[in-house]
TrEMBL record:
<dbReference type="InterPro" id="IPR001173">
    <property type="entry name" value="Glyco_trans_2-like"/>
</dbReference>
<protein>
    <submittedName>
        <fullName>Glycosyl transferase family 2</fullName>
    </submittedName>
</protein>
<feature type="domain" description="Glycosyltransferase 2-like">
    <location>
        <begin position="6"/>
        <end position="123"/>
    </location>
</feature>
<keyword id="KW-0808">Transferase</keyword>
<dbReference type="Pfam" id="PF00535">
    <property type="entry name" value="Glycos_transf_2"/>
</dbReference>
<dbReference type="GO" id="GO:0016740">
    <property type="term" value="F:transferase activity"/>
</dbReference>
<comment type="similarity">
    <text>Belongs to the glycosyltransferase 2 family. WaaE/KdtX subfamily.</text>
</comment>
<dbReference type="InterPro" id="IPR029044">
    <property type="entry name" value="Nucleotide-diphossugar_trans"/>
</dbReference>
């Protein structure tokens, strides 16, 4: 039974070796789908036995779904993992034990993702346990066609494992805020699409089956997106930091919940407002405004 791990990279020399090492003994092959890194990412990948493929970046979903088309036809399972993530030894052992006996009708496997920020594990605020579908049968799953917050979607039944993926980015706070500034532009595109319908709407949103990702996406698209811009960012931060006890994460947790739970969400709303203002002033349509304001080609 073959399990292929797919890692998307761009200048991931700080994280890649650690990620690949965590897959040892589990992955039949590691495929690094790179968008023309300029550091030592490719050298690290090849030195650790990974197969490197390269493709120009559009967004995460497009890159990942393209990578799926490059896998061998006899692949049985695909594992999606980011370069700054690692599988715990417990999850590796759990996958190795259960995979051969999974019923043929099962399409995907959920596990938990635990986040760190500034060297501290974030335990509160509703960000753990986050259940993520990262392992799926080849040919039965693909990434949602979205600009931000993409999930793997499958049509058949899924099962749950207890092991964890650890999201542990080692870059500086300056890098982190720059990344989230870019993320905010991409998430603004998805919010604008809910209103203007300029591209297909691909979503795992669902209240059926109790799937965490589906419920959260439904709340985001049906409830959160209809709240007033700006106010919803504050309401979400209050929910995370007070209601879900984010304040128990200490000083690092305060920075994380404020930046990721309020600043980032407010920035998304500000960018949505900026695009709409530009549309009114320039008389351009939403696609043209997104290109001019956010520098994103739809």
């Amino acid at each position: 039974m073959t399990l292929v791990a797919v890692i998307l990279t761009f200048n991931e020399e700080r994280h890649l070796a650690r990620c690949v090492e965590s897959l040892k003994g589990l992955a039949s092959e590691v495929v690094v789908a790179d968008c023309y890194s300029t550091d030592t990412t490719l050298e690290i990948a090849r030195n650790r036995g990974a197969r490197v493929i390269q493709h120009a970046w559009v967004n995460y979903a497009t890159q990942f779904n393209w990578a799926l088309t490059q896998l061998d036809a006899d692949t049985d399972w695909v594992l999606r993992i980011d370069a700054d993530e690692v599988l715990t030894p417990e999850l590796v052992e759990e996958i190795m034990l259960c995979l051969p006996s999974i019923a043929p009708e099962i399409d995907g496997v959920y596990c938990s993702r635990r986040m760190t920020f500034q060297g501290r594990v974030i335990r509160h605020g509703g960000v753990f346990p986050i259940r993520v579908l990262r392992l799926f049968r080849y040919g039965r799953g693909q990434c949602e066609n979205r600009w931000m917050d993409e999930h793997i979607k499958v049509s058949g039944p899924t099962i749950d494992l207890q092991g964890e993926i650890i999201d542990d980015n080692l870059h500086s706070l300056t890098w982190w805020t720059g990344k989230h500034n870019r993320y905010a532009s991409r998430e603004a595109v998805d919010l604008l699409n809910l209103e203007y319908h300029f591209m297909p709407h691909d979503s795992v949103a669902s209240l059926r089956g109790g799937n965490q990702a589906g419920v959260k996406r439904w709340l985001k698209e049906v409830v959160y997106s209809r709240l007033p811009g700006g106010f919803r960012a504050f309401a979400y931060f209050f929910y995370r930091y007070v209601v879900r006890l984010g304040f128990l994460d200490g000083q690092a947790g305060m920075a994380f919940h404020f930046l990721q739970g309020f600043w980032y969400r407010y920035l998304v709303d500000a960018k949505v407002a900026e695009v709409k203002r530009y549309m009114s002033e320039s008389k351009k349509d939403v696609v043209g405004a997104i290109q001019d304001v956010l520098d994103i080609q739809i």
